[in-house]
């Protein structure tokens, strides 16, 4: 059985829309767990009333993304899940999303799978996976590399984000859960999928499965738009900071090939220190 785990904190309208899109899937062979990390907008009460099929777990407001996801994964595994999907609440699933993810999951039962992301306002592809060079610190965006006729099926990638990430249960048995101690919010998904790949689990982006997302609503985009010294500090040191130097250091030490670590760290620090003002 597939279990879908969705961590939430407020933004009830997004959660409703996401869960409604799951109700409209072409197949219903899955169950959903929402981890409500201390929402103050009535999320838990509304979900109990409007989505009784959804199991809601309660956090204390200090879980953030990684610990919230891990709480849901633990419950899913207790229920006997053979696959878990992590999903953000600010996405809309195409009606055939789950069906198309499971189609390839059955063909490649040990693979971790992500999905093609489309801008919810324009329906244009905005994220289709990437291949990363640890040496040059450059990302090769598959949307720029693949020809239109190649944008179907599976394509190998270096890592995947957690918004729509399908994970076989045996991956957790092999490498454990997401690293909530060292990566409480950002980079935990890239770290997890990178570690899984190094342990022999294939990591693919699935161009047949589509998610609608709201790129302008991400925490990183909001922070960068409202540039300030406080925002710069939060960018580099805050738990939700997209350029958090501590998180980046942990990610680099865990995943970068050892001979390249010094160069990778210097490159990465420089990008984070100046990147806030360039975007």
UniProtKB/TrEMBL annotation:
Gene3D superfamilies linked: Spore Coat Polysaccharide Biosynthesis Protein SpsA, Chain A
Entry's Gene Ontology molecular function annotations: glycosyltransferase activity
Domain (Glycosyltransferase 2-like) ranges: 4-110
Keyword Transferase: yes
InterPro entries per UniProt: Glyco_trans_2-like (IPR001173), Nucleotide-diphossugar_trans (IPR029044)
SUPFAM superfamilies named in the record: Nucleotide-diphospho-sugar transferases (SSF53448)
Keyword terms: Glycosyltransferase, Transferase
Pfam families, A to Z: Glycos_transf_2
Superkingdom, natural source: Bacteria
Keyword tRNA-binding attached: no
Family the UniProt entry places it in: Belongs to the glycosyltransferase 2 family.
Protein name as catalogued: Glycosyltransferase family 2 protein
Origin species: Hymenobacter oligotrophus
């Amino acid at each position: 059985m597939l279990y879908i785990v969705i961590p939430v904190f407020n933004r009830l309208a997004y959660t409703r829309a996401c869960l409604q899109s799951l109700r409209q899937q072409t197949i219903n062979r899955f169950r959903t767990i929402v981890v409500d990390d201390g929402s103050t907008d009535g999320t838990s009460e509304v979900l109990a009333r409007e989505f009784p099929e959804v199991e809601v777990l309660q956090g204390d407001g200090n879980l953030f993304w990684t610990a919230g996801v891990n709480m849901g994964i633990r419950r899913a595994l207790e229920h006997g899940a053979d696959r878990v999907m992590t999903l953000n609440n600010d996405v809309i699933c195409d009606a055939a999303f789950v069906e198309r993810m499971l189609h390839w999951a059955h063909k490649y039962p040990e693979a971790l799978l992500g999905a093609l992301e489309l801008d919810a306002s324009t329906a244009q592809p905005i994220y289709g996976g990437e291949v990363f060079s640890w040496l040059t610190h450059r990302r090769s965006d598959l949307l720029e590399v693949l020809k239109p006729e190649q944008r179907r099926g599976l394509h190998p990638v270096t890592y995947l984000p957690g918004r729509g990430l399908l994970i076989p249960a045996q991956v957790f048995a092999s490498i454990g859960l997401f690293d909530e101690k060292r990566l409480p919010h950002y980079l935990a998904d890239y770290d997890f999928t990178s570690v899984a790949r190094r342990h022999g689990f294939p990591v693919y982006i699935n161009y047949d499965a589509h998610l609608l997302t709201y790129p302008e609503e991400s925490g990183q985009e909001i922070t960068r738009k409202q540039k300030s010294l406080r925002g710069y500090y939060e960018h580099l040191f805050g738990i939700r900071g997209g350029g958090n130097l501590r998180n980046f250091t942990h990610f680099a030490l865990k995943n970068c090939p050892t001979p390249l670590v010094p160069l990778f760290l210097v490159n990465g620090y420089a990008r984070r220190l100046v990147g806030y003002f360039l975007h």
